[in-house]
From TrEMBL:
Residues 108-285 form the D-isomer specific 2-hydroxyacid dehydrogenase NAD-binding domain. This is Glyoxylate reductase / Hydroxypyruvate reductase. Belongs to the D-isomer specific 2-hydroxyacid dehydrogenase family. GO terms for molecular function: glyoxylate reductase (NADH) activity; glyoxylate reductase (NADPH) activity; hydroxypyruvate reductase [NAD(P)H] activity; NAD binding. Pfam families: 2-Hacid_dh, 2-Hacid_dh_C. It is an enzyme of class 1 (oxidoreductase).
Length: 318
């Protein structure tokens, strides 16, 4: 009998093709209720999850002893309890690489939009409040030629650096470990976090969310930044202390921010919603048609590999 696979949300069709030999249940496009999820996962050998599902010990136990693999359709896997998976012998996979360029596009889009006040401008035009061109209207800092500090210099951070080179930016980065090959290839320079914060004009965050990176950027870090600084976050919301960011923006301690991710998605800190100098996107970093197809296929293929007893391409190694 074919093994059971649960796909926790509707995903691009491409991702279901590798799963055609299994008995597949696909839940709806909406985020499933916890109870529905725990019921649906019973007896599953494989789960294709997304970042909105909390894949914890309770969920794995609800699946039962037959659960072999959780393929998370995201590069981030902070929604999966890796220790609980390892204790139960469940392989976890993610989708690195395929979304680097698309997410870097989003980061750069937010960086430009925040610096050049696109959100504010759009709101003025749509509200019929635009009266005329103005010599001082909606001016913001130049992006080209400035110093960009990249926090987290993995695939996405490096893809942002490639874009920044086209804008003649100076590329500085902070990472857990030095990336010397990438430094040479991209003309990037490593700085410790303190110096990066004090000297850069723009910041783009690309670290995974871990215990160490939670609130990596908070009130003390905003104090160190220049008042013209622009911060972009397309990684995970909790890497930035959202309340501290809202205060820093409201008090003019930094110039602007562009956010794609939030501490308690889909909630956004109410103070941020009131501010003009922040561009707010609804976690669409990887949301190109092509990339979402690739993410779904990557997850589907790895799930199939594990159920066939093969090694998946993207195992998450705790
Ligand atoms: C990820 O992959 O982790 C993104 O946040 C969603 O694409």
């Amino acid at each position: 009998m074919a093994e059971r696979v649960l796909v926790t949300r509707e995903i691009p069709e491409e991702g279901l093709r590798p799963l055609k030999d299994f008995e597949v249940t696909v839940l709806s496009e909406k985020i499933p209720e916890r109870g529905e999820l725990l019921e649906a996962v019973k007896g599953a050998a494989g789960v294709l999850s997304t970042l909105t599902e909390n894949v914890d010990a309770e969920f794995m136990d609800a699946a039962g002893d037959g659960l072999k693999v959780v393929a998370n359709m995201a590069v981030g896997y902070d929604n999966v309890d890796i220790d609980a998976a390892q204790e139960r012998g469940v392989v976890v996979t993610n989708t690195p690489g395929v979304l680097d360029e698309t997410t870097a596009d989003t980061a750069f889009m937010l960086l430009l939009a925040a610096a050049r006040r696109l959100g504010e401008g759009e709101r003025i035009v749509r509200a019929g409040r635009w009266e005329a061109w103005g010599p001082k209207m909606l001016t913001g800092p130049d992006v080209w030629g400035k110093r960009l500090g990249i926090l987290g210099f993995g695939g996405i951070g490096q893809a942002v650096a490639r874009r920044a080179r086209g804008f003649g930016m100076e590329i500085l980065y902070y990472n857990r470990s030095r990336k010397e090959e990438a430094e040479r290839a991209l003309g990037a320079q490593y700085l410790d976090l303190d110096e990066l914060l004090r000297t850069c004009d723009f910041f783009s965050i690309h670290t995974p969310l871990t215990e160490e990176t939670k609130h990596l950027i908070g009130a003390p870090e905003f104090e160190k930044m220049k008042t013209e600084a622009v911060l972009v976050n397309t990684s995970r919301g909790p890497v930035v202390d959202e309340a501290a960011l809202a205060d820093a923006l409201a008090e003019g301690r930094i110039f602007a921010a562009g956010l794609d991710v939030y501490e308690e998605e889909p909630k956004v800190h109410p103070k941020l919603l009131e501010l003009e100098n922040v561009v707010l996107a609804p976690h669409i970093g990887s949301a190109s048609i092509e990339t979402r197809d690739k993410m779904a296929v990557t997850a589907g293929e790895d799930l199939r590999a594990v159920l066939r007893g093969e090694r998946p391409k993207n195992p998450v190694e705790g």
